[in-house]
Fold:
Amino acid sequence: MNKSIQIKCIYILFLFVIISCTKEDTASSGSFQGEIEFVKTFGGTKNETAKSVINTIDGGYAVFGYTQSNNGDVTDKANEGYDYWLLKFDVNSQLMWSKTFGGTEDERGQSIIQTLDGGFFITGSSMSNDEDVSVNFGANDYWVSKLDSSGNIVWEKSFGFEGLDQAFSSIQTLDGGFLITGILDVTASNQQGNDRNSSLSRHSGGDYWAIKLDTNGTKQWRHFYGGSNTDSAFDVVQTEDQGYIIVGSSDSSDIDITNSKGTYDYWATKIDENGTLVWEKSYGGSEIDQGYSITKTMDGNFIIVGDARSNDLDVSSNHGSADVWILKIDPSGNILWQKNFGGSSFDSAKAIIPSRDSGFYIVGDSRSTNNDLTSNKGNNDVWVLKITESGNLEWQKSIGGTEIDLAFGVAELNNNSIIIVGESWSSNNDVSENKGFSDVLIINIK
Structure:
């Protein structure tokens, strides 16, 4: 064979191998790009919403929120007051059972965890003092229930005073107990609800409220943190030193808040295992910025997500009305990096979880159609983002119909797919059916 021809053949073969490998690598790395497996709705003729979802030890998942209906998919409820609603699905996403919990007044479920014994711990707020709820201390109380693996109540507890006291998050602690966090109406409680001496600092409005329980639900301590305006805690994680970081938003600039940036800020409080305040940090700019969810990272740090209207101070830029704002902090609360994603309208993140590939899934809602978004089906869409460990956007997807569709929780399953939950008012485009006003929305993405 002519030497020049031989060289050309080798070169062509080399290019073929490179192109083939590149295509194969691209297909392999991009095989999971947010493909929708299913979109389902559950509910009756009134209002339902899902606030939390967890993967369960049997390979399935559990969805938790609240329901107003007493018909349709809601089969064990007599009245049209709001009750906690728990739906348990198997590994094939088939509904195994659903149960409601509450009394004759309103109960709003917010958070579910699976406990070390295979049961569940559900958290929210209650206005009842009958049926499943043994006592009410006035208006809304924290109401928590320990369930067995079949959803039967093992024990339940209420905590609160005369005002609107609302629990939003809970975790099982390293000692087998529980920490519940949310909002205490300090003004209505007349400064009660604190096991430390607060006589020198008169709080008011709403404050972060943390209650530590032992494994049987007995209160070990309770503390509130905040200032003279509105401080709302939405999520909590336990730290390696047995303490906790609580996150949410603050409108205060006094008492426990020392470095307020604007109208509302992300506010993170680090407390020790006994509830004593170790440090507190405000993050944001001069506009309204609200944090909703926190997760640990593999390198021992933390990521907080929510929405930011600011484009100054800690917030480097803003695409429009509000952006998803992602903030990575170290164990001392120092900012490591921050990033924002969104379009020219309102975009918000409500939950973040780590993914098995060291990245993170973020869910919330969006009204935008530009910049980081490629579509909007109408009004608010569910918005899901996949980011890398360093906060770079891998992919994003908007899901919904022409009405309001919102996401509040996300879980990664054993098959590496994700379940997103929230509420939907739509009955078109991605959402095929609406059964009442708002329905529980469940989305599976592979």
Remarks:
- The longest strand covers residues 48-55.
- Helices lie at 3-29, 186-189.
